Amino acid sequence: MKVVASKIVLFLFMFFFFAWSSFKAVEHSSLLWCMRAFVGLVGSICVFRSAPHRTRDTSTVALFVSWASVICPLLYSYNYTDNNDLYLVLTVAGLAISGISLLELDKSFGIVPGFRELKTSGLYRIVRHPIYAGYLLASLGWLLYTPSLGNCFVYLAQFFFTVTRIHFEERLLQSSCPEYAEYKNLTKFKLIPLVF
User: Fold this and answer.
1) CA–CA dist 150, 153 (Å, integer)
2) What is the Cα–Cα distance from 31 to 27, expressed in whole angstroms?
3) Which of 90, 149, 159, 167 is the most exposed place for a label (fewest CB within 10 A)?
């Protein structure tokens, strides 16, 4: 019963945070609303799905970094400048990559680093962390849509927290999953094919 109550409280918190952060987004850009709706969807999936996991990193730093990387996209400001349509292509592509990757992971996805099941097919054959690659691509599109010093700092923070989150995940996977070393050799790049 305590688990159900805590999930409901967490869901309500996420719902109201999402609603608050999206209030002005609707009047400025449906694209920003879509980005925030995606973050809300991911959070809801994590709250209400069963979380089958073999091992999990519950250290304070891992929890902070994981949640910070998820919350960063909610912090972008709305200083619209219609400079080009590249932002739309990047944002839609990023959300599509994240969405497809999330579907491929199914119940193996979680906010906190954990080993549930190793996925090596689909977009996971190209990079080891396609969901995060999609997040960063979509956020880069938003940064191009609303360039400002504040949004640059938010993007850099999101990038930093995401790369740090990957570090915690890969450390856990290497210690928990013997097949992960072979997967790393086959799929050499973490986020960006041929780069990183």
Assistant:
1) 5
2) 11
3) 149
The C-alpha atoms of residue 54 and residue 116 are separated, in whole angstroms, by: 6
Alpha-carbon radius of gyration of the chain: 17
Task: Give the whole-angstrom CA distance, residue 169 versus residue 162.
Answer: 10
Q: What does the buried/exposed string (b/e) look like for 124-143 if buried means 16 or more CB atoms within 10 Å of the residue's CB?
A: beebbbbbbbbbbbbbbbbb
The model's confidence at residue 144, banded by pLDDT at 50, 70 and 90, is confident
pTM value? 0.78
Q: How do the residues of the chain divide into helix, strand and coil, expressed in percent and rounded to 5?
A: 70, 0, 25
Phi and psi angles of residue 177, each rounded to the nearest 5 degrees, phi first:
-130, 105
Model pLDDT for residues 13-58, shown as the tens digit of each residue: 655 555 555 555 545 566 666 666 666 666 666 655 555 556 777 7
The pLDDT of residue 99 is 83
3-class state of residue 186 by DSSP = helix
Q: 115 has which bridge partners? A: 55
